[in-house]
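Quick one, tokens below. Sequence please?
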């Protein structure tokens, strides 16, 4: 069978033994007539040294014979070209995946670095940053900075009495060991107390003096190296100012709570049954205050003491344990400081009076308080006030209950001049009253 075209070493045949297209050898093909073939077909090898190839089997057929399918046709085996341009190679797929993963990792690292750098957190796991001490510091004007400065001056006060151990708070007001606390913390004790400092150390203390009506007491410890607090000006406070309450609520020493000044000159009348009645125009705050905070400092945003935490409001019935509901009251530091100085200087405090006794309300509820009696030689009489007059305002503060007049008068120091607006009959008048100290 002649005229066979040789292509790439394959002898191609039509199904059924029909030779391929007739014609001579393709241009450049070697000459035909080689004695080696298969199936009686003469085929010329496409490489010139085929007969001399030591690895070639001379008896091997020179053509691949494709078996005929039962139906008479040839069913080619499905094949695919690994070098086809539209099909990626396995190596390419792996390479693209690797590059994509590297790019994604680099992008994630860059974003993480940018976030940590922007937030100031540059800590690497397993390593301590060089600027760690600086990161731990707080600005002096921050709440944490204020607490750090003031807490070493805050103490816990424990007093033994027949009823057990009374515990409250206090703060150091002088380098020689004077500590301010509430009178109701030391009341009923033996005159001795134990002071627990910020670092946990303790020292014995003695009661220097106390004023039940203002609820201020002073005790003293014998210890050097004490850091006194800085006093602020309670008259300069405004509603909304931030404050911190410090002390040992529920025996939890070194506790700091934050809030604002909720109200000013909130007139209070407090006291236990059978005990003294306490009056003061308090600073109201929503900073959390509980039992044990009594006597601790109320501090402004500059770290200055502006009040002495004293009482709380509660919804519980008598005899039950009261807790914080966001209504706490502190004695203004201007008043507390004055009382403290009196106690340290003389052993007792002066009480500011107006020289009149108050009884019922004015003719209409909330329309002032009536003077039941006026002392002939007292400050009110000297200013022209008489029995029966209805005091409407004291230095601009409206009065609605007798407690209001007493508490507001106690806020001022003896010798202070206040403006009193009062009603006599149907006319309103003003008078300047110079307050005085009680004769006691």
């Amino acid at each position: 069978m002649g005229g066979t075209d040789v292509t790439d070493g394959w002898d191609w045949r039509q199904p059924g033994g029909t030779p391929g297209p007739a014609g001579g050898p393709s241009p450049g093909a070697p000459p035909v007539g080689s004695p080696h073939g298969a199936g009686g077909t003469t085929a010329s090898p496409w490489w010139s040294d085929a007969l001399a190839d030591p690895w070639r089997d001379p008896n091997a057929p020179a053509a691949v014979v494709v078996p005929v399918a039962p139906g008479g046709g040839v069913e080619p085996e499905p094949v695919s070209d690994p070098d086809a341009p539209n099909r990626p190679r396995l190596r390419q797929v792996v390479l693209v995946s690797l590059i994509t993963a590297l790019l994604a990792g680099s992008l994630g690292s860059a974003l993480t670095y940018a976030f940590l750098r922007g937030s100031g957190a540059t800590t690497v796991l397993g390593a301590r940053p060089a600027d760690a001490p600086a990161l731990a510091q707080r600005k002096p004007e921050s709440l944490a900075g204020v607490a750090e400065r003031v807490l070493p001056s805050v103490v816990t006060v424990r007093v033994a009495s027949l009823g057990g151990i009374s515990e409250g708070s206090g703060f150091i007001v002088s380098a020689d060991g004077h500590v301010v606390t509430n009178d109701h913390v030391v009341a009923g004790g033996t005159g001795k107390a134990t002071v627990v400092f910020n670092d946990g150390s303790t020292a014995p203390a003695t009661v220097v003096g106390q004023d039940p009506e203002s609820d201020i007491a002073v005790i003293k410890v014998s210890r050097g190296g004490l850091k006194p607090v800085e006093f602020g000006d309670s008259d300069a406070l405004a509603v909304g100012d931030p404050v911190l309450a410090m002390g040992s609520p529920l025996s939890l020493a070194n506790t700091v709570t934050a809030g604002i000044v909720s109200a000013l000159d909130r007139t209070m009348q407090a006291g236990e049954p059978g005990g003294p009645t306490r009056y003061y125009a308090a600073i109201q705050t929503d900073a959390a205050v509980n039992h044990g905070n009594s006597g601790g400092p109320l501090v402004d945003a500059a770290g200055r003491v502006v009040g002495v935490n004293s009482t709380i409001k509660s919804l519980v019935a008598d005899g039950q344990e009261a807790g914080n509901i966001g209504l706490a009251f502190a004695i203004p530091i201007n008043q507390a400081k004055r009382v403290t100085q009196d106690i340290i200087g003389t052993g007792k405090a002066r009480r500011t009076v107006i020289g009149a006794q108050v009884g019922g309300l004015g003719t209409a509820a909330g329309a002032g308080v009536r003077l039941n009696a006026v002392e002939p030689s007292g400050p009110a009489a000297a200013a022209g006030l008489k029995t029966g007059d209805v005091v409407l305002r004291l230095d601009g503060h409206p009065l609605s209950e007798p407690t209001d007049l007493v508490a507001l008068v106690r806020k001022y120091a003896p010798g202070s001049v206040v403006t009193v607006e009062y009603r006599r009959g149907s006319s309103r008048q003003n008078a300047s009253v110079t307050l005085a100290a009680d004769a006691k």
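The mean pLDDT is 79. The chain has five domains: 1-77, 88-123, 146-221, 232-335, 352-437.
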